[in-house]
Every structure is written in structure tokens, then in C-alpha cells.
Amino acid sequence: MCGVLYSTTEMSEQPQGSTKIAGALTEASAVLRAAGIIEARPHARTLLEHTLARDHAFLIAHSDDELEPSALALFRERVERRAAGEPLQYITGRQEFYGLDFEVNPAVLIPRPETELLVETALELLREHDAAPLVCDVGTGSGCIPVALLHERRDARAYGLDISTGALAVAARNAARHGVASRLTLLVSDCFDALDARRAQTFNLITSNPPYIAESDLAGLQREVREHEPRIALTPGGDGLSVIRRLVAGAPRFLDAGGHFIFEIGYDQHETVARLVDGNVWTLLDIRRDLQGIPRVVVLRRREPHA
């Protein structure tokens, strides 16, 4: 348990098994609201749906049903975890991304809606390839980027690289869940190190959502992010750009001539990142803005070698 958020009076005055679904939701919403959770009611509902393995329609239709004592105890425990700052997605073990249901746990970054822009951009670029494109995703985490790409592009194959074996285990399960495991090769790798060792073939497209948060900005993150998501996936330290520098420098030797490298950046990094791009190696095609108007996805094309 994460602290005394439900008072002993609250818990003892209720006869065992006497709390109804509607009452449990009201009680949990109050606990979450008091803890500063903005979407208290929706989060309470999601936690109860998860606890009962039922959907929203069931909760409405059965609002007067009494909860079993074991289910009530488990629900209250999960509410306390959320009130203490643990992300909802880690409690339920699930996050939707690009219309697909992904497993997540504390070994991986929770997929964000803005990263869907990277997937959309990748699919747009892959339309240039009539058949069997080969993609590499660096820092693959949950596998959300390559799995979404392979799910949409059935003739594609991909490599997913990550320094974390725990993350790769999650990615493998997500690939299996969505039927793309046979087309996804997962490798333990610090940036491109594993490809150097294997002398792997070149790719049509390289993608990455790298750690890019400056160390000085960590304190300003939401507590859910700062205290629970894997630090290695959030920041490389310093100004936050060391991994991006490595990727921009290393990607050309693993790309076909004319191939693309696209990656996500932080809200105030686009001008600095643009200066990192060597115009003799890359053409900077675009820095695309997310739905909030923030420069988010950098699009590079490897230049054709001079004759």
C-alpha cells in the first residue's frame, strides 16, 4: 500500500462486501481528486474496469452491484498507487498507441501521442518503397514504433535496438501480440553498436525516439514521469543531446544513399539540432510540428555520394 489515503473509519464502517460499484467509484474519485489527480473520475473508472476485467458499459449497467471484498481491496490498493503518483499505464499495464494496445511496465517509456507523428512521417516516407522496406528503430523501448510500422506496412521488416534487456522483452511481447514478431529483429545495443558488430545491411529508414531531456529540466517534469519512468529513456544527462549527436553522426553508415533518418526532439531543441546536421552528409527536409505546434520530428535524408 502507498499510505493511508482511505481512512480507517472509511474502511471499517463498511461491512465487508457492502460497497457498490457506484459507491466505490465515488469514493475512489474523491481520493484521487484530493491527491491532485486532474482526471480523477476517469482514472478511477479505468482502475475499476481493470480490476474487474469489465468495460465501462458493465460499470454503468451494474452500478448497484456490490463488490466482492477481494475486488474492493485490490481496487483500493490500485487507487492508492495512482494517488501516490504511479502512472495509470503502469498500474493497468497498457497504453494505446497508433490504434494498437501496447503492454507497458516500468522498464519502458510510456508511448506518447506526439510520437505518433513520427510513425505517420515514417509511413509517408516508406511509400517511396514499392516492396519490402527495411527499417531500424533505435531505442525501441516498448517497440511501439516498429510494431506500429510493421502492422501498417505488411511487407516491411525491422530491427529494434535498445540498451535495456527489460525493454526488449516488452517489445518482443508487443510484437507477438500484434502478429509482427517474425518480421522484427530485436538486439541489445547502445545506439548502433550491435549493428557495427554484426555488420548488418543498410536500411531504407532509421527512426528513433531517443532520450533528449536536459538534466536541468528533470526537476520540472510531472512526478509521474520524474519518479516512475525509466531515467535512461528520458535523459542522457547534460544538455540532453548527446545521444542525438551520436545518432546523427552514426546513422549514415547504416542508411542506403537517399535513405531517411527521422527522430523526435524536445520542445526547445529544434534550432540547436538543426546546427548539428552536416550539410555534406544530410539534407534537412523538415522539422515537423506536433498538434501543440511544437517542433517535434526531424526529417533527414542521406545525400547521394558524389561521383
Shape: elongated
The domain tally reads: 2
| CATH third-level topology of the largest domain | Rossmann fold
CATH class of the largest domain: Alpha Beta
Round the Cα radius of gyration to an integer and report it.
22 Å
Annotation, overall tally of beta strands? 9
How do the strands of the widest beta sheet line up side by side?
Answer: 5-4-3-6-7-9-8
Mean pLDDT: 92
Tally of individual helices = 14
Helical percentage: 40-55%
- Find the CATH superfamily of the largest domain: Vaccinia Virus protein VP39
CATH architecture assignment name of the largest domain:
3-Layer(aba) Sandwich
How far apart are the termini? 67 Å
- Strand percentage lies at 15-25%
Give unreliable regions as ranges: 6-17
Order of helices and strands: HHHHHHEEHEHEHEHEHHHEHEE
Describe the protein's architecture and organization:
With 307 residues, the chain is of the alpha/beta class. The chain is 41% helix and 18% strand. The chain has helices spanning 8-13, 21-34, 40-52, 56-61, 69-83, 88-92, 115-126, 144-152, 165-177, 193-198, 223-228, 231-234, 242-250, 270-276, and strands spanning 94-97, 100-103, 134-138, 157-162, 184-188, 203-208, 255-264, 282-289, 295-302. It has a seven-stranded mixed sheet with strand order 5-4-3-6-7-9-8, with helices on one face. A hairpin with a 2-residue loop joins strand 1 and strand 2 (100-103).
